[in-house]
Amino acid sequence: MSEARAGDGPPAAARSRKSRWWQRGLPWLITAGCFVYLYSRLARAAAAEGRGLGPYLAAIFENVSWSRWLLLMIPYCALFVLIDSLVVWRVITWFNARLRYADVLPIRASAYILSIVNEQVSKGAIALYLSRRNGIPAWEVGSSMLFIMFCEYYYLLMWATVGVLLQWDRLPQVFHVIPWLALVSAAVFVVFYLFFTGRLSSGRVGWGGAVRNRPLFRSFRLARLRHYAAVIALRSPAMLTAVVVYGLALKLFGVTVGLGEMLGYLPVIFFGAAMPGPMHSVAIVLWVLLFPERPGAMTTFGFVQHNFFILFNAGMGLLFLRRATRELLAKAP
After folding, report:
1. Residue 309 above 60 pLDDT?
2. What is the pLDDT at residue 18?
3. Between the chain's N and C termini, which has fewer beta carbons within 10 Å?
4. At CA 124, angle to CA 311 and CA 187, rounded to 5?
5. Three-state secondary structure along 19-44?
6. H helices, E strands: number in the chain
7. CB-CB contact of 94 with 148 (8 Å)
8. Residue 286: is its pLDDT beyond 60?
9. Phi, psi at residue 116, to the nearest 5°?
10. Are residue 139 and residue 288 in the same domain, yes or no?
11. Do both 91 and 24 map to the same domain?
12. What are phi and psi of 202, to 5 degrees?
């Protein structure tokens, strides 16, 4: 028997390595496919105007009023940082310790530098910082970061569902699954909430009790419906502001879209870009799919909007990095 089990080991390990290879390679294949699609659309559009691809894109950049664009994007990005920091501050004060908003803003802003690589890593950096600076157990702060990410999913899903219902006929069919996903997620949330509030069982023993009582899930044990609703409500002004800003910015690229129409598009793009799978790949090129007559302008628009948002937030983080580092190295209270 032992020989048979030993003989079964290598094939199983090989299958596991093969599976991991596909998991690592699939996102790169999807990304490559998106770039190939965009390149072909841009090349055809440039050829139709009798230009090379470089001069075609350069002409689009020249026709945009970048000063007006910056007047829109800089206040929006700064507002997002303030709202995002507000959410982190409220959750920490609910579940961990009473801190000042000014104590949380520097580390939340500084963590955007790590967000360029991975948003989850930046949340972990916030947990480590608050644990060392304020003496809060790291697992408990990590629980609050996990709670924020959990709420972010439902926040994006809620607004994406609104967007799909508003623009059902205009959006690709892959996004029509979002309302059904929202129903399933709502059912999961009910079970999740009842489980962590201890209402699905009469005792705290056994496997369920052991999971529920782990420090990593402390915030979920303490959270009530008002906490989930408050996080979504605090974040929603950022989404509504983005709808207005993106609508005005799109006019600078020669496309006019009403606010109601943009409310249908933007939350779906934000949600799709945050999710793995086919929705993520379609969200990357959705601006071009929605406005196929302007592939160059839409590719440029999506590129500069996304990258400026990320880089500006990281730049904000650099402004606060020195203070955050100094406070981290200081003796924790």
Report:
1. yes
2. 53
3. N
4. 100
5. HHHHHHHHHHHHHHHHHHHHHHHHHH
6. 15, 0
7. no
8. yes
9. -60, -35
10. yes
11. no
12. -85, -15
Residues 25 and 159 in one domain: no
Handedness of CA 137, 188, 87, 107 (dihedral sign): positive
- Are 125 and 11 members of one domain? no
Same domain, 38 and 155: no
**Residue span of the structural domain in which 12 resides:** 1-62
pLDDT of 249 higher than 90: yes
Identify the domain boundary among 24, 39, 62: 62
**pLDDT of res. 11:** 56
Whether residue 4 has pLDDT greater than 50: no
**pLDDT at 5 (0 to 100):** 45
Find the helix packing angle between 225-252 and 66-95, rounded to 10°: 170
Q: What is the CA radius of gyration of the chain?
A: 23
User: Model-level pTM greater than 0.85?
Assistant: no
Domain ends where: 12, 47, 62?
A: 62
- Segment 215-245, tens digit of pLDDT: 889 999 999 999 999 999 999 999 999 999 9
Domain co-membership, 104 together with 184: yes
Q: From CA 160, how far away is CA 201, in angstroms rounded?
A: 34
**140/237 same-domain check:** yes
Q: What is the pLDDT of residues 21-44, one digit of tens each?
A: 655 665 566 666 666 767 677 777
Buried b (16+ CB within 10 A) or exposed e, 135-156: ebeeebbbbbbbbbebbbebbb
Q: Are residues 75 and 213 in the same domain?
A: yes
98, with CB counted inside 10 A (0-12, 13-18, 19+), is exposed
What distance in Å separates the CA atoms of residue 82 and residue 105, rounded to the nearest whole number?
Answer: 7
Task: List the one residue out of 2, 64, 34, 17 whose CA is nearest residue 297.
Answer: 64
